[in-house]
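input
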Amino acid sequence: MRRIVKFSSVALVSLVLAGGLSGCGGGGFLTPDAAPTEEDILLGQDGRTLWETRLQYIKIVDRDKGGIANEHPDSISSEQLRTVLSSLYVSEKSLFGETQAPVFSPTELQVLSTAMPNGLSQAGSDEDITFVTIGTHKGAIAKERKTTTGRVFISGGRLNIIFGLVHETYREKDPITNQPIDRRINPLLPGTRKFDSKPSTRIALDEGQSQYLDPETGKERTDWVVIDIATVLAAAKSRANDNDGRVSPELLEDVARSKQDTGNLREDLGGMKEILFDMSAEIDRLKKEIEDLKAQPE
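output
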């Protein structure tokens, strides 16, 4: 019988609370991007659904178009895949110009690098791995939940990812009507071999990465990235050696961001204390009114 990983009711309540509090200015100090444990992820890996929680999933599916057979089953370690996926960045506009941000958040990386190698080792030559993840990422003003979806397979010794959505802002309600979005009508679709999904956000290509050249049209696919695994792993190792213990610009940026998050946390806590103080004063006032009413003669 197929086993599927799902959050417990306690975890779901925590996510609901986190989502509510995160909307209270400054991005909040709780986020719904809490990392599941490796044990939770591995529980669902004996069937076609490798991991699933609400709208997010990682699955083994039939390939959606004929052609050269995939090189599955294939072996890639969790650590190697994490390094490869960590090398993917997107270019985003900010107040200070254009910056690059990781495609996947730490939680998304943990889930994908844990479940996907198992899927690639199970999949047949006519099967792909599809995924839908929702991660918390740095936004223009505050942190935002963003969706990334894709179709993954290995061919020609390279990892292929056909993206459906890349850093698409995730919403549960329509911003205009404020009505819940029906995902049966508006599903979060992974990419397909059949056509270019033309994601609104493009992958910023680095060493060992390239766009797929469609032999039928002679044009590059904007949604399809071909990754030379060996080249990316070698580049990552070289960069780690080049740092030689020195602090990288990325690490300095992370430290600065952590300081900002800590400042936001203090502000949020301070605001909550003020609210609680005001509530206490109001409760005392209401109690006194009730006591005065009870004391009045009938």
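quick obs: The longest strand covers residues 144-155.
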